[in-house]
Specification:
This protein is mostly helical. It contains twelve helices and no strands. The mean pLDDT is about 90. It binds heme C (HEC) (5 copies).
């Protein structure tokens, strides 16, 4: 009987198979690394803004509450970005000639809103609602980080599905008293973990939060 595969062909076949297997492993490792990397999640990246607005100065330094500028965060899906008039309540008197603020003055004169580059954004197929999170006591800092220390806004968390689900499956440790929602530096509970645990358990009951339903696909993909 004639030999179909020579000995060398067999070795070559094995070598090719081995190479394919290695490539597959490399591809999986690369994809895994990529999904976690800041390229994919955009964590820590800043955008060029039309005006170099600093949360560090306005929130950390001047102590302005988030809701002064993001006024719909408690009542709507969207936190909202401030109208030019909101900046002008102060900047019609302060830094009135500063070149840095020229786009603000131009916007007020023309009525054209400032086009801020968005930093915190989900794909269109995901449903998110600020008001429910705020009503339940999930503070801004949980999702947006130490905004009061950011000279330019950057994304603090990956905003991927696994990140949402991590909290949805066990929200209790993330809940804070309503009056601390916009506070960036509230650390009372680090001194009293037992009070923290009790508060979480109590609020889960009081609000009727059911983690078993919070990972239903239809909750975020409607
Ligand atoms: C409650 C008053 C107030 C409001 C409202 C306000 N600012 Fe300011 N802003 C200030 C003060 C005070 C300074 C000077 C801060 C400093 O030097 O520490 C300042 C400084 C600035 C600067 C100079 C760079 C810096 O951060 O020091 C820019 C740019 C600026 N503001 C943009 C804005 C924009 C844009 C808005 C609207 C979204 C706004 N501000 C709203 C009070 C305000
Ligand atoms: C004086 C007005 C002002 C105050 C106070 C303020 N912000 Fe902002 N915020 C802005 C402006 C203007 C932008 C758009 C420019 C930028 O990204 O820096 C913005 C952008 C943001 C963004 C990014 C939105 C996006 O998708 O690009 C987040 C998140 C945010 N603010 C959170 C907060 C939080 C949390 C607080 C309170 C701790 C706060 N802000 C207080 C004016 C304000
Ligand atoms: C549970 C997480 C979470 C909490 C808590 C939260 N945010 Fe957000 N925020 C997001 C997500 C996710 C987006 C992107 C939404 C989108 O693109 O649809 C966002 C977007 C924003 C934006 C961009 C404009 C907009 O309306 O989408 C601002 C401003 C903002 N948040 C401010 C705040 C402030 C201020 C607080 C606290 C009072 C807060 N957020 C609390 C997750 C959160
Ligand atoms: C730090 C905790 C936390 C994070 C992070 C978080 N959530 Fe939530 N989410 C909650 C809590 C608490 C509730 C309220 C549950 C309840 O009252 O039953 C909630 C409720 C919701 C609801 C239900 C709203 C409604 O009208 O019923 C949606 C939708 C939602 N979250 C989407 C998201 C998405 C999308 C993300 C990620 C981008 C996210 N959440 C991240 C804690 C969180
Ligand atoms: C708490 C909110 C939430 C729930 C619940 C949820 N998702 Fe998602 N999902 C997201 C977010 C946020 C993204 C966007 C991820 C990104 O941009 O990287 C996403 C993305 C996706 C994608 C796009 C591919 C990807 O992974 O980026 C698919 C497919 C998906 N979800 C399927 C599901 C299925 C199936 C379920 C139910 C088992 C589910 N999701 C439940 C928030 C949620």
């Amino acid at each position: 009987m004639p030999q179909i595969f020579t000995a060398t062909a067999d070795t070559r076949l094995r070598a090719v198979l081995l190479l394919l297997a290695l490539l597959l492993v490399a591809a999986v490792l690369f994809a895994g690394g990529y999904m976690q990397s800041s390229y994919a999640t955009l964590v820590g990246w800043v955008q060029d803004q039309p005006v170099p607005f600093s949360h560090q100065h306005h929130v950390g330094g001047l102590g302005i509450d988030c809701r002064y500028c993001h006024s719909t965060v408690e009542v709507s899906e969207h936190a909202g970005l401030p109208a030019t008039e909101v900046c002008m309540t102060c900047h019609s008197q302060l830094w009135t000639g500063a070149p840095m603020l020229a786009p603000i003055r131009r916007s007020l004169a023309t009525g054209e809103p400032i086009r801020w580059q968005r930093v915190a954004r989900l794909p269109d197929y995901v449903y998110f609602d600020h008001s429910i999170h705020i009503a339940r006591g999930v503070p801004c800092v949980e999702c947006h980080g130490r905004v009061d220390q950011m000279p330019l806004m950057k994304r603090a968390e990956p905003f991927q599905m696994g990140w949402c689900l991590d909290c949805h499956r066990n929200p209790a440790p993330h809940l804070k008293p309503p009056e601390q929602i916009t506070r960036m530096d509230w650390t009372e509970w680090e001194k009293d973990p037992e009070a923290h645990r009790l508060y979480g358990a109590l609020m889960m009951k009081a609000y009727g939060i059911e983690p078993s339903t919070l990972d239903d696909c239809s909750m975020c993909h409607r």
